[in-house]
Amino acid sequence: MAANSQFSMAVHVLTVLARHEGEKIKSEKIACSVNTNPVVIRRLLGQLAQAELVESQTGAAGGTQLARCPDQITLAEVYGAVSCGEVFALHGKPPDKNCPVGRNIEAVLCNLQKQIDRSVAETLSRHTLQGVLEVIEQERP
Amino acid sequence: MAANSQFSMAVHVLTVLARHEGEKIKSEKIACSVNTNPVVIRRLLGQLAQAELVESQTGAAGGTQLARCPDQITLAEVYGAVSCGEVFALHGKPPDKNCPVGRNIEAVLCNLQKQIDRSVAETLSRHTLQGVLEVIEQERP
DNA sequence: TAAAATGTAACTAAACTTGTTACAGTTATG
DNA sequence: CATAACTGTAACAAGTTTAGTTACATTTTA
């Protein structure tokens, strides 16, 4: 189970909201499409709300809707919102500082990590939620 | 603890080997620099050997050395060898196929995943072990 | 005031990574 | 040839993370 599919879920959730722009959607309805528990969805929506990608309303007749038009939400923002963390982890325990490699490798890896993060962000910023929605609508058999 | 630092460890291990080209290095010596257990290193070396990046010799006076020159080993190969898996995971449970989004979202995400993998590989292929080694040697105070 | 929704805390279960011990197999060397 | 010194690998424990679930306080509509 442990594999972090939050980004996948987030894109899914936002796409469902995008298909119903203007409407307020209940967490239970989204959960049904994602095939999970409504609480899992609400937790995820909390993160997306913090990133100001969605807006929720409590109370009866409450629900969630997009905070912006789908063509103004890039997948890079979504990725940043759910903060999947880094692509690879640095050393758990600190390396031996008596060894030249151990002393300097972390800086190298940290730099590498930043390059990869930028590269991933750049790739994702080329996609918008609108683009995803269009593929979905178009691919419907 | 659970965060997959195998790529970091692999780069570390290979850099240590690169610093001693031609010599056979014992897993215990590497483990000392990485600050972990020799068995962890040997497991990692097994993966690197399968990818033909290193060669090990058993028995007394055994050890491991690089299978190629450091300038002919890219970090993309290293990343591939330890197979950290994908940057994000697809859905755990399959989405609801009655919903248009649930029916088609996986294809979209899968495609996205491939794009990101390519992007990461492209970034990493710009770095060689030789390059890492030079930074390490140069940064020594 | 009651019903219906979100927000959130707490707990469980499953999966994964790392660390550790133990031991079989291999090889150099006295 | 016997021993010491390595690698390779299996098996297990411990810690962390994710997802799922239950429960309940809070908010809002009707």
Description:
The structure is a homodimer of 141-residue chains. Chain A is mainly α and 141 residues long. The first copy, chain A, has a domain at 6-85 and 127-139: Winged helix-like DNA-binding domain superfamily/Winged helix DNA-binding domain (Arc Repressor Mutant, subunit A), CATH 1.10.10.10. Helix content of chain A is 56%, strand content 6%. Chain A contains six helices and two strands. Chain A has helices at 6-19, 27-34, 38-50, 75-82, 100-124, 129-139; strands spanning 54-57, 63-66. A two-stranded antiparallel sheet of chain A has the order 1-2. The longest helix of chain A is centred in the last third of the chain and has 25 residues, at 100-124. The first copy, chain A, is elongated and about 65 Å long. The mean pLDDT of chain A is 95. Chains A and B meet through α1, α2, α5 and α6 of A and α1, α2, α5 and α6 of B. Chain A binds a DNA duplex (30 and 30 nucleotides) through residues 1-6, 26-28, 36-40, 42-43, 45-46, 56-64, 92-93.
Quick overview of this protein structure:
Chain A is mainly α and 141 residues long. In chain A, 56% of the residues lie in helices and 6% in strands. The model of chain A has no long low-confidence stretch (mean pLDDT 95).
